[in-house]
Amino acid sequence: MMRPAIARLNRRSSPGWRAAALLVATVLVPGCALLHQAPLTTPGLHEIRLTTNPGDDYAPVFSPDGTRIAYTAFVKDIGVAVWIMDADGQHKHQITPRTMRAFNPTWNPDGTRIAFHANTPGLNNIWSVGTDGQGMKLLTTTTKAHDVYPTWSPTGDKIAFVSTRNEEVEVWTMNTDGSDQEMVTSGGFGDYVPSWNPDGSKIAFASTRAHKDEIVARNGGKVPDYVRQVFSIGEELEEPTGDGDIFTIDVATRVMTQITTDKAHEWHPAWSPDGKWIAYVSDKAGNRDVWIMRADGTGQRQITRHPKQDRLPMWSPDGKTIVFTSDRTGNWDVWTVDVSAFLTP
């Protein structure tokens, strides 16, 4: 079996910056294409641009009290780092050093620390740091695999992440000091970007696992290279056309449920604070946009509609706003959109 590889494809640090091929599959889902008929947003309607960095800003996430947003930024002469700004886009400051190449911040429940993964040549590990940039701690120390996509549990005692350490891409959990690392998903075919439900009992994630046989068959009986790869989110925001699905897993029982199965690429789930909704990215309308659905996969509703690409949705603590990344200005910037009108029964 081939060794997992890491794609380091920042478009400004490498001329080879390109789409990361993460998902390919095709399936038709009965009864899951219930589209909300409320008016779709149009560019600029209830949407606010928060960053204007000439570089790229991505992977935004609200603080637990909703007053701040952490995100990854590529800034000229500084490099790739985690930054924090006020929720209105003001008072931006960097909290990780440029040498770390830090991605995918996630807040602990009391808003005092942020976990992230850092990319060094050929390796990714999970770290945490105080929101003042102090108290840096290394949480995973694998030297033969990649640990990425950390997300802090709402109960504060666990961090979910993705690891390639068993030569598969699986979801793991660990204590917040890095101890008790445990594989949660198994037998998969690429499980990515975990998101906890509000009580910490379930994790949503994106996966290609439902289409393993199809993918292998289309690749001449071989496992494609991209299935064994893990990518630093933000470095390859444009995934190719393909069919990823959203799954949930009960952390205690390991019971897994597939909640999207239509012919579309669906990616990056994010559970709402009340547990009723999951935001995600889908190309079912022909373009990568932000959508939401009920936690059981019904009531799918398109939130953004723009000729460019919208990615990486995350909820505000009050559940009324989604922050996301878009390249609609020519760079990847952080935006917010009001979703109140879409949260009808």
What would your notes on this structure say?
The chain is globular, with a radius of gyration of 18 Å. It is 2% helix and 39% strand. The protein has one helix at residues 212-218; strands at residues 6-7, 47-49, 56-62, 68-75, 79-86, 93-94, 102-107, 113-120, 123-130, 137-138, 147-152, 158-163, 170-175, 182-183, 191-196, 202-207, 230-231, 245-250, 256-258, 266-271, 277-282, 289-294, 301-302, 310-315, 321-326, 333-338. It starts with 5 loop residues before the first strand and ends in a 7-residue tail after the last strand. It has a single domain (6-342), classed as Neuraminidase (6 Propeller), CATH 2.120.10.30. The strands form seven sheets. The chain has a four-stranded antiparallel β-sheet with strand order 2-26-25-24, with no helix packed on it. Strands 3-4-5-6 form a four-stranded antiparallel β-sheet, with no helix packed on it. By secondary structure, the protein is an all-beta fold.
